[in-house]
Write a structure and sequence with these properties.
single chain; transcription; 7 helices; transcription regulation; 2 domains; sigma factor; Arc Repressor Mutant, subunit A; RNA_pol_sigma-70_dom; DNA-binding
């Protein structure tokens, strides 16, 4: 039968558990993680014990697995810290949200007070993010008309919303 036997692996693990734990402790910073890594190393080597053809290399396989698992644990921690250290997006306060809603309501009311063509041009131009040429084509009017309706519409909105030019 090729590979390390379960008995030999278990004996090696028991005999070297403390040194494997010490190795993990040098790489990681908390005891619980070290114990987890050493136990996971035993499980992984146990699953792959047939590949350990020389019994004398069982301890080397366990040590290498502890090192690899410790590296993986550190990478996960570093990634987690990078993700946590990103600043949280600015959240609007309740007052800002209420003020924004009032502004939106005022804008909608002012938009309803515009001439139909002015409203259409402004909605297509600024809310649908179309170019002036696209607006002209969509509405079937000239580019000059789009510019005129847009200019007059913005002027009317400034007056309706109490802004100065």
């Amino acid at each position: 039968m090729a590979g390390t036997t379960v008995d030999h692996l278990t004996e090696t693990y028991r005999a070297h558990y403390r040194s494997l734990l010490g190795l993990a402790a040098l790489l990681l910073d908390d005891t619980a993680s070290c114990e987890d890594v050493v136990q996971e190393a035993f499980i992984r080597v146990h699953s792959a014990r047939r590949r350990v053809r020389d019994k004398e290399k069982t301890l080397a396989y366990l040590r290498q697995t502890v090192v690899n698992l410790s590296r993986s644990a550190l990478r996960r921690r570093i990634l987690g810290l990078k993700l946590l250290s990103k600043p949280m997006p600015d959240m609007a306060s309740a007052e800002e949200g209420a003020y924004d809603q009032l502004e939106r309501d005022a804008l909608i009311k002012a938009m309803k007070g515009l001439q139909r063509r002015q409203r259409e041009v402004l909605v297509l131009r600024y809310f649908a993010d179309m170019t002036e040429a696209q607006v002209a084509k969509t509405l079937g009017i000239s580019l000059g008309s789009v510019k005129a309706y847009g200019s007059r519409g913005i002027a009317a909105l400034r007056v309706a919303m109490g802004a100065t030019a």
